[in-house]
Specification:
The structure is a single chain. This protein is an alpha+beta fold. It has one domain. Helix content is about 30%, strand content about 15%. It has a two-stranded antiparallel ribbon. It has a two-stranded antiparallel ribbon with strand order 3-4. A hairpin with a 6-residue loop joins strand 3 and strand 4. The longest helix is centred in the last third of the chain and has 12 residues. It is globular and about 40 Å long. It starts with a helix and ends in a 10-residue tail after the last helix. The mean pLDDT is about 95.
Amino acid sequence: MTISERLRQTIREQAKYRCGYCLMHQRHVYAPMEIDHLNPRSHGGSDDEENLWLACPFCNIYKSNLADGVDDATGERIPLFNPRRQRWLDHFKFGIDRAEIIGITPCGRATLKALRINDVDPLEYRRLLVKFSEYPPKEYL
């Protein structure tokens, strides 16, 4: 089954044109945002609206078909953050520089690690956006 353009646009609007994981806005991504299957098809996920959300290419390439990740604090496998069902601020916060994203729950830590959200390149890019007051989104501070 393919995802219609109408449904893609609905997902973009619901996500406010932001990646559900790193919160990067479409205007700051040098490629189209991708429609992410929260529960990957390879794990039985569907193309239904409730299983879809927006992800930037960097987060989505590492998420790939992952459904869980490892929390380094406990060593346990934990389901990845679901931006449709979970509240971002319940699992993450910004570091003092407002660019680094810190996991405050096992889910948050496992997601950050699996999606490599604080790798050097995305972190440096977010730091640049912070200097121009373009990141993080004000409603997440």
